[in-house]
Design a protein that fits this description.
435 residues; mainly alpha; 16 helices
Protein backbone atom coordinates (compact mmCIF):
# COMPACT_ATOMS: atom_id res chain seq x y z
CA UNK A 1 0.00 0.00 0.00
CA UNK A 2 1.03 3.58 -0.56
CA UNK A 3 1.65 6.28 2.05
CA UNK A 4 -1.44 8.52 2.22
CA UNK A 5 0.45 11.68 3.19
CA UNK A 6 2.94 11.25 0.36
CA UNK A 7 0.12 10.54 -2.06
CA UNK A 8 -1.69 13.78 -1.14
CA UNK A 9 1.50 15.82 -1.44
CA UNK A 10 2.33 14.19 -4.78
CA UNK A 11 -1.18 14.93 -6.06
CA UNK A 12 -0.85 18.62 -5.19
CA UNK A 13 2.58 18.88 -6.82
CA UNK A 14 1.39 17.06 -9.94
CA UNK A 15 -1.54 19.41 -10.25
CA UNK A 16 0.58 22.54 -9.84
CA UNK A 17 3.19 21.31 -12.32
CA UNK A 18 0.55 20.47 -14.92
CA UNK A 19 -1.31 23.75 -14.42
CA UNK A 20 1.85 25.78 -15.01
CA UNK A 21 2.86 23.65 -17.99
CA UNK A 22 -0.55 23.86 -19.64
CA UNK A 23 -0.89 27.62 -19.14
CA UNK A 24 2.43 28.40 -20.81
CA UNK A 25 1.90 29.97 -24.26
CA UNK A 26 -1.86 29.38 -23.97
CA UNK A 27 -2.62 32.53 -25.96
CA UNK A 28 -1.60 30.73 -29.16
CA UNK A 29 -3.12 30.11 -31.58
CA UNK A 30 -4.74 33.52 -31.63
CA UNK A 31 -7.87 32.39 -33.41
CA UNK A 32 -10.38 29.78 -32.38
CA UNK A 33 -8.62 26.44 -32.44
CA UNK A 34 -10.30 23.61 -34.42
CA UNK A 35 -13.65 22.77 -32.71
CA UNK A 36 -13.45 25.86 -30.51
CA UNK A 37 -15.29 27.32 -33.48
CA UNK A 38 -18.37 25.40 -32.27
CA UNK A 39 -17.99 25.46 -28.49
CA UNK A 40 -16.77 28.99 -27.71
CA UNK A 41 -19.87 30.63 -29.26
CA UNK A 42 -22.03 28.10 -27.44
CA UNK A 43 -20.39 28.92 -24.10
CA UNK A 44 -20.91 32.63 -24.73
CA UNK A 45 -24.58 32.01 -25.50
CA UNK A 46 -25.00 30.33 -22.11
CA UNK A 47 -23.38 33.37 -20.48
CA UNK A 48 -25.83 35.65 -22.27
CA UNK A 49 -28.78 33.34 -21.47
CA UNK A 50 -29.47 33.04 -25.18
CA UNK A 51 -30.68 30.06 -27.19
CA UNK A 52 -27.83 27.58 -27.56
CA UNK A 53 -26.91 26.73 -31.13
CA UNK A 54 -24.66 23.75 -30.33
CA UNK A 55 -27.57 21.49 -29.44
CA UNK A 56 -25.89 18.28 -30.71
CA UNK A 57 -23.99 17.84 -27.42
CA UNK A 58 -24.96 17.93 -23.72
CA UNK A 59 -24.28 21.23 -21.92
CA UNK A 60 -21.75 20.57 -19.12
CA UNK A 61 -18.51 21.07 -21.06
CA UNK A 62 -19.81 24.29 -22.60
CA UNK A 63 -21.02 25.54 -19.21
CA UNK A 64 -17.54 24.98 -17.78
CA UNK A 65 -16.03 26.89 -20.69
CA UNK A 66 -18.52 29.68 -19.98
CA UNK A 67 -17.13 29.95 -16.44
CA UNK A 68 -13.65 30.54 -17.84
CA UNK A 69 -14.89 33.15 -20.32
CA UNK A 70 -16.94 34.87 -17.62
CA UNK A 71 -13.93 35.14 -15.30
CA UNK A 72 -11.03 35.74 -17.69
CA UNK A 73 -12.78 37.34 -20.66
CA UNK A 74 -13.65 36.54 -24.25
CA UNK A 75 -10.14 35.78 -25.47
CA UNK A 76 -7.76 32.87 -25.88
CA UNK A 77 -7.13 32.54 -22.14
CA UNK A 78 -10.83 32.65 -21.30
CA UNK A 79 -11.66 30.06 -23.96
CA UNK A 80 -9.04 27.55 -22.77
CA UNK A 81 -8.29 28.14 -19.10
CA UNK A 82 -10.91 25.69 -17.82
CA UNK A 83 -9.42 23.04 -20.09
CA UNK A 84 -6.05 23.52 -18.39
CA UNK A 85 -7.70 23.11 -15.00
CA UNK A 86 -9.52 19.92 -15.96
CA UNK A 87 -6.50 18.63 -17.85
CA UNK A 88 -4.46 19.02 -14.66
CA UNK A 89 -7.16 17.22 -12.69
CA UNK A 90 -7.04 14.45 -15.31
CA UNK A 91 -3.32 13.98 -14.67
CA UNK A 92 -3.95 13.73 -10.92
CA UNK A 93 -6.64 11.16 -11.73
CA UNK A 94 -4.08 9.17 -13.72
CA UNK A 95 -1.83 9.24 -10.64
CA UNK A 96 -4.51 7.86 -8.33
CA UNK A 97 -5.68 5.24 -10.82
CA UNK A 98 -2.07 4.04 -11.11
CA UNK A 99 -1.86 3.92 -7.30
CA UNK A 100 -5.04 1.83 -7.18
CA UNK A 101 -3.78 -0.54 -9.87
CA UNK A 102 -0.10 -0.91 -8.99
CA UNK A 103 -0.07 -0.01 -5.28
CA UNK A 104 3.31 1.75 -5.35
CA UNK A 105 4.28 5.42 -5.45
CA UNK A 106 7.09 4.73 -7.91
CA UNK A 107 4.80 3.09 -10.46
CA UNK A 108 2.18 5.82 -10.08
CA UNK A 109 4.66 8.67 -10.63
CA UNK A 110 6.22 6.82 -13.56
CA UNK A 111 2.78 6.47 -15.14
CA UNK A 112 2.13 10.19 -14.68
CA UNK A 113 5.45 11.04 -16.33
CA UNK A 114 4.67 8.80 -19.27
CA UNK A 115 1.16 10.23 -19.58
CA UNK A 116 2.50 13.79 -19.78
CA UNK A 117 5.05 12.70 -22.37
CA UNK A 118 2.31 11.02 -24.38
CA UNK A 119 1.32 14.43 -25.83
CA UNK A 120 -2.40 13.67 -26.05
CA UNK A 121 -3.19 15.06 -22.60
CA UNK A 122 -0.98 18.09 -23.15
CA UNK A 123 -2.64 19.13 -26.41
CA UNK A 124 -6.20 18.38 -25.26
CA UNK A 125 -5.64 20.38 -22.05
CA UNK A 126 -4.93 23.52 -24.07
CA UNK A 127 -7.97 23.65 -26.33
CA UNK A 128 -11.61 24.46 -25.65
CA UNK A 129 -13.11 21.08 -26.56
CA UNK A 130 -15.62 18.87 -24.77
CA UNK A 131 -13.32 15.84 -24.72
CA UNK A 132 -11.04 17.49 -22.16
CA UNK A 133 -13.83 17.83 -19.60
CA UNK A 134 -15.28 14.44 -20.46
CA UNK A 135 -11.99 12.66 -19.83
CA UNK A 136 -11.43 14.41 -16.50
CA UNK A 137 -14.71 13.05 -15.12
CA UNK A 138 -14.07 9.69 -16.80
CA UNK A 139 -10.63 9.07 -15.26
CA UNK A 140 -11.90 9.89 -11.77
CA UNK A 141 -14.87 7.57 -12.32
CA UNK A 142 -12.36 4.81 -13.14
CA UNK A 143 -10.41 5.62 -9.97
CA UNK A 144 -13.54 5.15 -7.85
CA UNK A 145 -14.69 2.05 -9.72
CA UNK A 146 -11.33 0.27 -9.73
CA UNK A 147 -10.82 1.09 -6.05
CA UNK A 148 -13.73 -1.22 -5.23
CA UNK A 149 -11.54 -4.08 -6.54
CA UNK A 150 -8.87 -3.56 -3.90
CA UNK A 151 -8.38 -6.64 -1.70
CA UNK A 152 -10.29 -6.54 1.58
CA UNK A 153 -12.20 -3.39 0.61
CA UNK A 154 -14.81 -2.65 3.28
CA UNK A 155 -18.43 -2.82 2.21
CA UNK A 156 -19.31 0.76 3.18
CA UNK A 157 -16.35 2.03 1.21
CA UNK A 158 -17.38 0.03 -1.85
CA UNK A 159 -20.92 1.38 -1.60
CA UNK A 160 -19.65 4.95 -1.37
CA UNK A 161 -17.23 4.42 -4.24
CA UNK A 162 -20.01 2.97 -6.38
CA UNK A 163 -22.12 6.09 -5.80
CA UNK A 164 -19.20 8.32 -6.68
CA UNK A 165 -18.61 6.25 -9.81
CA UNK A 166 -22.22 6.71 -10.86
CA UNK A 167 -22.17 10.47 -10.23
CA UNK A 168 -18.90 10.97 -12.11
CA UNK A 169 -20.14 8.88 -15.03
CA UNK A 170 -23.28 11.00 -15.12
CA UNK A 171 -21.17 14.12 -15.47
CA UNK A 172 -18.96 12.36 -18.03
CA UNK A 173 -22.01 11.73 -20.19
CA UNK A 174 -23.16 15.32 -19.57
CA UNK A 175 -19.96 16.50 -21.28
CA UNK A 176 -20.14 14.11 -24.21
CA UNK A 177 -22.18 11.02 -24.92
CA UNK A 178 -19.06 8.89 -25.26
CA UNK A 179 -19.36 8.59 -21.47
CA UNK A 180 -22.15 6.07 -22.07
CA UNK A 181 -19.42 3.66 -23.22
CA UNK A 182 -17.64 3.90 -19.84
CA UNK A 183 -20.95 3.57 -18.01
CA UNK A 184 -21.85 0.48 -20.05
CA UNK A 185 -18.42 -1.05 -19.45
CA UNK A 186 -18.84 -0.74 -15.67
CA UNK A 187 -22.34 -2.18 -15.81
CA UNK A 188 -21.16 -5.13 -17.92
CA UNK A 189 -18.36 -5.84 -15.45
CA UNK A 190 -20.69 -5.81 -12.44
CA UNK A 191 -23.28 -8.06 -14.07
CA UNK A 192 -20.58 -10.35 -15.50
CA UNK A 193 -18.82 -10.77 -12.16
CA UNK A 194 -22.11 -11.57 -10.45
CA UNK A 195 -22.90 -14.26 -13.02
CA UNK A 196 -19.41 -15.74 -12.64
CA UNK A 197 -19.79 -15.82 -8.86
CA UNK A 198 -23.03 -17.77 -9.17
CA UNK A 199 -21.38 -20.48 -11.25
CA UNK A 200 -17.58 -20.59 -11.25
CA UNK A 201 -17.07 -19.89 -7.53
CA UNK A 202 -19.40 -22.47 -6.07
CA UNK A 203 -16.46 -24.74 -5.35
CA UNK A 204 -13.34 -22.84 -6.50
CA UNK A 205 -11.59 -20.07 -4.55
CA UNK A 206 -9.28 -17.72 -6.52
CA UNK A 207 -6.45 -15.60 -5.17
CA UNK A 208 -7.20 -12.15 -3.79
CA UNK A 209 -5.39 -10.52 -6.71
CA UNK A 210 -7.73 -12.21 -9.20
CA UNK A 211 -9.82 -10.13 -11.58
CA UNK A 212 -12.79 -12.21 -10.45
CA UNK A 213 -12.41 -12.34 -6.63
CA UNK A 214 -14.85 -14.58 -4.84
CA UNK A 215 -16.35 -11.93 -2.59
CA UNK A 216 -16.13 -8.91 -4.92
CA UNK A 217 -19.31 -6.81 -4.61
CA UNK A 218 -21.14 -9.69 -2.92
CA UNK A 219 -22.54 -7.24 -0.35
CA UNK A 220 -23.75 -4.80 -3.00
CA UNK A 221 -27.44 -5.47 -3.57
CA UNK A 222 -29.06 -5.15 -6.97
CA UNK A 223 -31.08 -2.25 -5.57
CA UNK A 224 -27.91 -0.45 -4.56
CA UNK A 225 -26.38 -1.21 -7.95
CA UNK A 226 -29.44 0.29 -9.62
CA UNK A 227 -29.14 3.39 -7.46
CA UNK A 228 -25.43 3.83 -8.20
CA UNK A 229 -25.56 3.16 -11.94
CA UNK A 230 -29.13 4.14 -12.71
CA UNK A 231 -30.68 6.88 -10.61
CA UNK A 232 -27.54 8.79 -9.57
CA UNK A 233 -26.05 9.10 -13.10
CA UNK A 234 -29.45 10.14 -14.47
CA UNK A 235 -29.92 12.84 -11.83
CA UNK A 236 -26.39 14.17 -12.33
CA UNK A 237 -26.79 14.15 -16.11
CA UNK A 238 -30.13 15.92 -16.26
CA UNK A 239 -29.14 18.43 -13.56
CA UNK A 240 -26.73 19.97 -16.07
CA UNK A 241 -29.72 21.01 -18.20
CA UNK A 242 -31.04 23.33 -15.45
CA UNK A 243 -29.51 26.45 -17.09
CA UNK A 244 -31.93 25.95 -19.99
CA UNK A 245 -34.73 26.99 -17.61
CA UNK A 246 -33.23 30.50 -17.43
CA UNK A 247 -32.69 31.15 -21.13
CA UNK A 248 -34.22 34.46 -22.24
CA UNK A 249 -34.98 33.47 -25.81
CA UNK A 250 -38.69 34.07 -25.84
CA UNK A 251 -39.49 30.38 -25.51
CA UNK A 252 -40.96 28.44 -22.61
CA UNK A 253 -38.57 25.83 -21.19
CA UNK A 254 -39.38 23.12 -18.67
CA UNK A 255 -37.80 19.88 -17.44
CA UNK A 256 -40.31 18.03 -19.62
CA UNK A 257 -38.47 19.41 -22.65
CA UNK A 258 -35.19 17.77 -21.61
CA UNK A 259 -36.29 14.31 -22.70
CA UNK A 260 -37.18 15.54 -26.18
CA UNK A 261 -33.79 17.23 -26.37
CA UNK A 262 -32.08 13.84 -26.11
CA UNK A 263 -33.74 12.63 -29.31
CA UNK A 264 -32.86 15.89 -31.04
CA UNK A 265 -29.21 15.49 -29.98
CA UNK A 266 -29.13 11.91 -31.21
CA UNK A 267 -30.57 12.94 -34.56
CA UNK A 268 -28.05 15.76 -34.77
CA UNK A 269 -25.16 13.34 -34.19
CA UNK A 270 -26.31 11.14 -37.05
CA UNK A 271 -26.57 14.11 -39.39
CA UNK A 272 -22.90 15.17 -39.03
CA UNK A 273 -21.64 13.97 -42.42
CA UNK A 274 -19.73 16.96 -43.80
CA UNK A 275 -16.38 15.94 -45.28
CA UNK A 276 -13.30 17.17 -43.41
CA UNK A 277 -9.66 16.96 -44.57
CA UNK A 278 -8.58 15.49 -41.24
CA UNK A 279 -11.34 12.91 -40.86
CA UNK A 280 -10.06 9.38 -40.29
CA UNK A 281 -11.25 5.83 -39.67
CA UNK A 282 -11.04 4.13 -36.27
CA UNK A 283 -8.91 1.30 -37.69
CA UNK A 284 -6.02 3.70 -38.30
CA UNK A 285 -5.97 5.51 -34.94
CA UNK A 286 -3.67 3.11 -33.02
CA UNK A 287 -0.96 3.48 -35.69
CA UNK A 288 -1.52 7.27 -35.94
CA UNK A 289 -2.12 7.13 -39.67
CA UNK A 290 -3.95 10.46 -39.72
CA UNK A 291 -3.27 12.87 -36.82
CA UNK A 292 -4.82 16.36 -36.79
CA UNK A 293 -3.43 19.82 -37.21
CA UNK A 294 -5.75 21.59 -34.80
CA UNK A 295 -4.29 24.90 -35.96
CA UNK A 296 -1.85 26.11 -38.58
CA UNK A 297 -1.61 29.84 -39.14
CA UNK A 298 0.86 32.45 -40.37
CA UNK A 299 2.51 34.54 -37.71
CA UNK A 300 0.78 37.90 -37.40
CA UNK A 301 2.85 40.46 -39.29
CA UNK A 302 5.51 37.96 -40.39
CA UNK A 303 4.34 35.47 -43.09
CA UNK A 304 7.74 33.77 -43.12
CA UNK A 305 6.84 32.14 -39.82
CA UNK A 306 3.91 29.99 -38.73
CA UNK A 307 2.42 28.55 -35.57
CA UNK A 308 0.79 25.14 -35.43
CA UNK A 309 -0.87 22.79 -32.94
CA UNK A 310 -0.61 19.12 -33.87
CA UNK A 311 -2.61 16.44 -32.10
CA UNK A 312 -0.23 13.50 -32.32
CA UNK A 313 0.53 10.85 -29.73
CA UNK A 314 4.12 10.16 -28.72
CA UNK A 315 5.23 7.52 -31.25
CA UNK A 316 7.20 5.33 -28.80
CA UNK A 317 4.30 5.28 -26.33
CA UNK A 318 1.52 4.81 -28.85
CA UNK A 319 3.22 2.06 -30.85
CA UNK A 320 5.09 0.16 -28.10
CA UNK A 321 2.02 0.60 -25.91
CA UNK A 322 0.04 -1.57 -28.31
CA UNK A 323 2.56 -4.39 -27.76
CA UNK A 324 2.30 -3.84 -23.99
CA UNK A 325 -1.38 -4.75 -24.16
CA UNK A 326 -0.38 -8.33 -25.03
CA UNK A 327 1.27 -9.17 -21.65
CA UNK A 328 -1.67 -7.46 -19.93
CA UNK A 329 -4.09 -9.70 -21.80
CA UNK A 330 -2.06 -12.89 -21.27
CA UNK A 331 -1.63 -12.26 -17.54
CA UNK A 332 -5.26 -11.23 -17.24
CA UNK A 333 -6.28 -14.64 -18.56
CA UNK A 334 -3.56 -16.98 -17.30
CA UNK A 335 -2.72 -15.38 -13.95
CA UNK A 336 -6.11 -13.70 -13.51
CA UNK A 337 -4.24 -10.44 -12.99
CA UNK A 338 -6.67 -7.77 -11.84
CA UNK A 339 -4.52 -4.97 -13.24
CA UNK A 340 -3.87 -6.61 -16.60
CA UNK A 341 -7.53 -7.44 -17.06
CA UNK A 342 -8.81 -3.95 -16.22
CA UNK A 343 -6.30 -2.22 -18.50
CA UNK A 344 -7.17 -4.38 -21.50
CA UNK A 345 -10.89 -4.29 -20.75
CA UNK A 346 -11.17 -0.50 -20.62
CA UNK A 347 -8.81 0.04 -23.56
CA UNK A 348 -10.93 -2.37 -25.63
CA UNK A 349 -14.18 -0.70 -24.54
CA UNK A 350 -12.92 2.79 -25.36
CA UNK A 351 -11.45 1.77 -28.72
CA UNK A 352 -13.56 -0.98 -30.25
CA UNK A 353 -16.81 0.82 -29.41
CA UNK A 354 -16.10 2.99 -32.44
CA UNK A 355 -16.69 -0.01 -34.68
CA UNK A 356 -20.32 0.09 -33.48
CA UNK A 357 -21.06 3.79 -32.90
CA UNK A 358 -23.06 5.04 -35.93
CA UNK A 359 -20.90 8.05 -36.78
CA UNK A 360 -20.40 8.90 -40.45
CA UNK A 361 -17.42 11.15 -39.73
CA UNK A 362 -14.70 10.56 -37.14
CA UNK A 363 -11.36 12.00 -36.06
CA UNK A 364 -8.15 10.90 -34.37
CA UNK A 365 -9.06 12.70 -31.14
CA UNK A 366 -11.81 10.11 -30.60
CA UNK A 367 -8.93 7.78 -29.69
CA UNK A 368 -7.98 10.01 -26.75
CA UNK A 369 -9.49 7.91 -23.89
CA UNK A 370 -8.19 4.63 -25.33
CA UNK A 371 -4.77 6.08 -26.09
CA UNK A 372 -4.42 7.26 -22.50
CA UNK A 373 -4.80 3.65 -21.28
CA UNK A 374 -1.53 2.74 -23.01
CA UNK A 375 0.45 4.45 -20.24
CA UNK A 376 -1.07 1.97 -17.79
CA UNK A 377 -0.30 -0.95 -20.11
CA UNK A 378 3.35 0.09 -20.28
CA UNK A 379 3.48 0.60 -16.52
CA UNK A 380 2.12 -2.92 -16.07
CA UNK A 381 4.88 -4.35 -18.25
CA UNK A 382 7.70 -2.51 -16.48
CA UNK A 383 6.39 -2.89 -12.91
CA UNK A 384 4.21 -6.03 -12.85
CA UNK A 385 5.16 -8.33 -15.72
CA UNK A 386 7.34 -11.15 -14.44
CA UNK A 387 10.02 -11.13 -17.22
CA UNK A 388 10.81 -7.46 -16.38
CA UNK A 389 11.09 -7.90 -12.62
CA UNK A 390 14.76 -8.89 -12.75
CA UNK A 391 16.98 -6.27 -11.12
CA UNK A 392 19.22 -5.94 -14.17
CA UNK A 393 16.21 -4.97 -16.31
CA UNK A 394 14.93 -2.27 -13.94
CA UNK A 395 16.89 0.45 -15.72
CA UNK A 396 14.82 -0.29 -18.83
CA UNK A 397 11.79 1.57 -17.52
CA UNK A 398 13.82 4.73 -16.95
CA UNK A 399 15.42 4.52 -20.38
CA UNK A 400 11.96 4.15 -21.91
CA UNK A 401 10.56 7.11 -19.94
CA UNK A 402 13.59 9.23 -20.81
CA UNK A 403 13.24 8.42 -24.51
CA UNK A 404 9.54 9.34 -24.39
CA UNK A 405 10.37 12.67 -22.73
CA UNK A 406 13.01 13.43 -25.37
CA UNK A 407 10.46 12.79 -28.12
CA UNK A 408 7.97 15.04 -26.31
CA UNK A 409 10.54 17.85 -26.29
CA UNK A 410 11.28 17.17 -29.96
CA UNK A 411 7.61 17.60 -30.92
CA UNK A 412 6.97 20.39 -28.39
CA UNK A 413 7.20 23.35 -30.83
CA UNK A 414 4.28 21.96 -32.89
CA UNK A 415 2.32 20.92 -29.82
CA UNK A 416 2.49 24.30 -28.08
CA UNK A 417 2.05 26.67 -31.03
CA UNK A 418 5.61 27.98 -31.06
CA UNK A 419 6.76 30.35 -33.77
CA UNK A 420 8.68 28.33 -36.39
CA UNK A 421 9.96 29.02 -39.95
CA UNK A 422 7.20 28.45 -42.48
CA UNK A 423 8.63 25.31 -44.11
CA UNK A 424 10.28 23.79 -41.03
CA UNK A 425 7.10 22.00 -39.94
CA UNK A 426 7.99 19.21 -42.36
CA UNK A 427 10.79 18.03 -40.08
CA UNK A 428 8.11 16.71 -37.71
CA UNK A 429 6.10 15.11 -40.51
CA UNK A 430 7.49 11.56 -40.51
CA UNK A 431 4.87 10.37 -42.99
CA UNK A 432 3.00 12.05 -45.83
CA UNK A 433 -0.34 11.29 -44.16
CA UNK A 434 0.66 13.44 -41.17
CA UNK A 435 0.62 16.63 -43.24
Amino acid sequence: MWNTSKAKLSAVLIYLFCQILFLFNLQYPRGQNFDEFHYVPSAKQFLALQANQNWEHPPLGKLLMAVGIGIFGDDQIGWRVMSTLFGSLSCVGVYFLALVLFQTQEAALWTVGLTLANQLLYVQSRIGMLDTFMYAFLIWALVAFCATWLPAQKRWKSSTLFRWTGALLGYTIACKWFGVVAWGACVILFVGIRLIQQTHFQSKSPTEQSWQPKHLWRDISWLEFGLSFGLIPAVCYFSTFIPYLFLQDGLTHSPLDWWDMQFRMFDGQLRVITHHPYMSDWTGWPLMLRPIWYAFEAELGDPNYVRGVLLLGNPIIMWIGLLALIPCLVDGIRRQSRQGFLIVFFYSAFYFCWSLIPRKISFYYYYYPAGMMLSFALAYVFFQWKPFRAQKLQIGKWIFLGTACILFLYFFPVLAGFKIPANSFRQWMWFQSWI
